[in-house]
Amino acid sequence: MAILGNIIKGVIEVKDAFTTEPDPVAEQREVLRELLHTARDTAFGQHYNFEKILQSKDMTKAFAETIPFYDYNTLYERWWQRQLDGEPDITWPGKSTYFALSSGTTGKTSKRIPVTDNMIEAIRQAGIKQVFSLSNFEFPADFFEKEILMLGSSTDLQEKEGRLEGEISGISASNIPFWFRKYYKPGEEIAAIDDWDKRVARIAEKAAEWDIGALSGIPSWIELMLEKVIEKHKLNHIHEIWPNLQVYTSGGVAFGPYEKSFRALMGKPVTVIDTYLASEGFIAFQSRPGTNAMKLITDNGIYFEFVPFEPEYILQDGSITQDAPCLDLSEVEEGKDYVLIISTVSGAWRYLIGDTIAFTDRERAEIIITGRTKFFLNTVGSQLSVNKLDDALKHLEETLELKIPEYTLCAKRYPDGFYHSWYLGTSTSMDPGRIAKELDDYLKEANKNYRVARSKALEGVKVHCIDPSVFYEWNARNKKKGGQVKMERVMGEEKFEDWENFVKTEITP
């Protein structure tokens, strides 16, 4: 009998039974108050007179009117550079012990985002909240005795001038609570291996010794890891070695494009739970079944604001205009795309995280990630966000019975005009012309702006099918395998030229 599992499940259910219904709007106002109060004597707080904002009649309005939007470059150049140099009390009290490295999907140069002790604790508390939410999914008691394989970046953080640097998943894993270490795999020794291929090889070697009940990580890297385990042990699917695997906690990117290829590695159904952990903090997680939306964590060190995702507010580099309207949680509408703005216990203030979201349930503060501001494809007026591109790929998978876990595209200028040039990561031998027609027809039917663009400057669609491994090698060349590394879905022409040259070298015998 799963005695320990029953105890854990019982504690979770009791905690859930005594939890009152939250009020996300009230929670957010209290979070903002705490952020301003705590940081009022920092250099940033004195510069923008946080004390005056706290005393205003409408604190949220005064906050929005006083402090400009910041993207990473501006915040780093004006404020975070001083923290990196060791100055205390710049945007948050004290010094930052950690800096999260994040090249994201935009280039080789790593961003250095401060991670304070308060943020470490906020991430830990968010993880606990997510564990308690598992009571909503009705897992059997013995699930809570199984091990959890977390595939992130290396926990071997680099020490530089008194600070520790690494990706946020590595920082989080290096700070896991002592009581969780019994369940945590691959364990501290393997997790510290910096070389991703060597780390995955060790995971494959040890896989038979573990009783994995849950997986956690970015979909593309989880799939590659599972494939290595299956190959190493000559399996038909992963459940032959981990029969008790019941949950996959996805994160970092939308799971939709990976769903078909991921399910193909399974021997039985697995519950997929989405999470939203960024370098800047733990933002949201899926708290209940019956939806793929995630609940914003509205009471835990992050204050959220929302800019309507409209072309007139988005600049060429993906940043937003300073005159863009900005809403708080009480003002948003369901079904509309917003640029996400955050202020945090790590000293990010009105910070453009680069993601766009839409609310599916305002009362519950539930959202879905709809894309990236940098990946908004509007070169010839098509106005395609990443979620619309993902929908088109899902349509291809279902209609043409394909698996397409990776893709990228560019509005590329050819001698006869602009085309949307797609590269699809798939092992199919299907005629690319047939795929291009299906893709074009779907987008014309599903998106009015695309249909108008096709009648004017956009000449059509070109499709190139390549092995998915080419995408992973591109990431390895430009950034690093594993961790928070994600493939850019939309490229500018200069980057796309580099990509196409890379593809040629990879597929040429």
From TrEMBL:
GO molecular function: acid-amino acid ligase activity
Limits of the GH3 C-terminal domain: 389-494
InterPro entries: GH3, GH3_C, GH3_M
Source taxon at top rank: Bacteria
GO CC term (a single one): cytoplasm
Residue ranges of every copy of the GH3 middle domain listed in the record: 297-361
Any single Pfam family the record assigns to this protein: GH3_M
Protein name in the entry: GH3 auxin-responsive promoter
